[in-house]
Design a protein that fits this description.
By secondary structure, this protein is mostly helical. The chain is built from three helices and no strands.
Amino acid sequence: MKRAGTPADRRAAAALAQLRPSDLRGTARLAVQATAGVTRIVEGVHQSVLTRLGLPGGAGPGQSRGLTGMVYRGIHGVTHLVDQGLQATLLRWSPGWTA
């Protein structure tokens, strides 16, 4: 005889039944934006420390230059590519979504 599951299992199943593709795309977009935001904050702090040491900054306020700037630009670029890839994949996947 099969057990019906715990109340927590039933609540989790009910919550998943309510999930829509747009929810997943929105969550992915939010995660990518959070990653980009944290990267900008870290770069700004990094550049503030370098400015305090008398080293020049990058093209804009809070931006780094040189090798450090190249690394941050790479992180921003990869984050953007991940966002595009996630959104394209989830958009393509959503027509076949069955919750």
